Amino acid sequence: MTGRDRPVARWAGRGLRGALSGLAAVGLAFTNLPLLVVSVVALALSPVPFLGLALVPWTMTLVRMRADLERRRASRTGVLVTRPYHPPPARALPGSWQYFRWTVTDPATWRDLAWLVPGALVGCGLGLIAVLLPLYGIYGLTLAPLWIWLGTGWYGYGAIWSVAVPGEAMLCVPQGGLLLGVGLAIAPWLRRVDAHFVHLFLAPTKNAELRLRVNQLTMTRADAVDAQAAELRRIERDLHDGVQARLVSLSMIIGLADELLDRNPAGTRKLLLEARESSSAALVELRHLVRGIHPPVLAERGLAGAVRALAIGLPVEISVEVDLPGRPDLPVESAAYFAVAETLTNLVRHSRARHGSVVLRHAAGLLTIVVTDDGRGGADPAAGSGLRGIERRLAAFDGTLELSSPPSGPTVITMELPCALSSPKTMPSSATG
């Protein structure tokens, strides 16, 4: 049986991970106060020549490492917290005035410092609840009945009711089970509450988001130019090494056949058969090349039909739901198609899923694609799974990709592309592949 066939086991697993994450939050909370003390001391010593220039950036680097850790922990719960820091100045070395100025003039530095105390209090409080409530339930299920059975003379459990005599010992079991269930149920929710609190302090402000957006557009423009150049080189290479070579061979075969036409009709017939096979192979290679540039199914059926065709050809059951009242522009449609194709390829290769789904919808000028699967989860863009390539493809059109893939799943990939739809809808609104 898979995790999809054991919903209770998956629910308990999520609750246990939430409780363990709460325990980690309690431990990490105790690092915030020392970081704050060290930072205050470093700032107090900043007027000291040389010492302040080196000490302040070093301590703020530690604070940023702690804040980055909390951002990653929040992102694992599905609450995306982007790093808001200014890029370091070019050729600025640690210990220099430029590096010191870059550190202390970044508003995100002071937001990190402002988060240390309230972040520690909220993280520790919510983490204690997430840990102690399930532990108290386990205590009621195990230790209290065990002590009563051993005749220790101590029968109290409290909370909902008390046990005063051995005959009431089993009352601890339903009480402990209830507390354990409630604790496992709310532990993931408590982690998300903590993650939203982290987002309140450590996410970029509106001005920082605008600045990051400008930087992202600058980088994506360069990536788009590089990707276009690489694609042109790939097409040239495929034409030169494949189709062009076959056409040259075809021309030589036809030339030999012309020379043998009068002298050797049988040899000429053989050469013509070979030329026909070579031309067929060249046509096949041309079709493959065109498919890699703009798949014919995409031109014929549109994005909805092309995605359904993709889903039908996969060994995993993929359901497709479409709500598109028209078609995007061709470049956007092609980018969306190849992004879905790469995502479904990753699903088949890495997720070990039994079922997946693709949802396509358009609203408020935004094409949204949501790909989910019930696999093992743990997808990581840094692990070479192709997600970085999908991000670059979408970023060229001002699109974004968000990933939620906790261990044991499910994996949810949300892709958004700003676009307008042109032609009226010609396909039904949903289908299953």
UniProtKB/TrEMBL annotation:
Transmembrane segments: 20-44, 50-67, 113-132, 138-157, 169-190
Domain Signal transduction histidine kinase subgroup 3 dimerisation and phosphoacceptor: 231-298
UniProt KW keywords: ATP-binding, Kinase, Membrane, Nucleotide-binding, Phosphoprotein, Transferase, Transmembrane, Transmembrane helix, Two-component regulatory system
Ranges of residues in domain Putative sensor: 25-202
Domain Histidine kinase/HSP90-like ATPase: 336-419
GO molecular function, one term: kinase activity
InterPro entries: HATPase_C_sf, HATPase_dom, Put_sensor_dom, Sensor_HK_TwoCompSys, Sig_transdc_His_kin_sub3_dim/P
Keyword Protease: no
Assigned EC number: 2.7.13.3
Protein's name according to its UniProt entry: histidine kinase
Species, as recorded: Dactylosporangium vinaceum
